Amino acid sequence: MENCLKNKVVIVTGSSSGIGEAIAAELVSQEAKVVIIGRREHKLKLITARCELVGTRPLVIRANMTKDDDRRMIIKRTIKIFGKLNVLVNYAGVAKFITILSNEAIEMFDEVVSINIRSIVHLVHLFAIFGCK
């Protein structure tokens, strides 16, 4: 059976832990060219080592998904290195548990919306623009 992921460029956000990490490692084992994204450098080093055990070294980009400039940088750097974009896996996300009466309720809401909604819409928008060229 032909491997449909071989040499495909795949960006995986939230890939420094949990399900995003597992997805990145599986994609590497399927011979995809994987771009791992996360905020924590030490976690990115761990997933890089895991990927190298099952396949090739991923492109590692340390980025904060709440920042528009970081999302633009992810797309630009991926295209600069690989010359194309094929697949986007959005797995960055947060959950905040706080009561509505908390002084931090609005700040926490803004953070959750920024990561869980705005970052995804913006990255898909950038991917569609630059990936379709």
From TrEMBL:
Pfam assignment, any one: adh_short
InterPro entries listed in its UniProt record: NAD(P)-bd_dom_sf (IPR036291), SDR_fam (IPR002347)
Domain of life: Eukaryota
Name the record gives this protein: Uncharacterized protein LOC114243535
Gene: LOC114243535
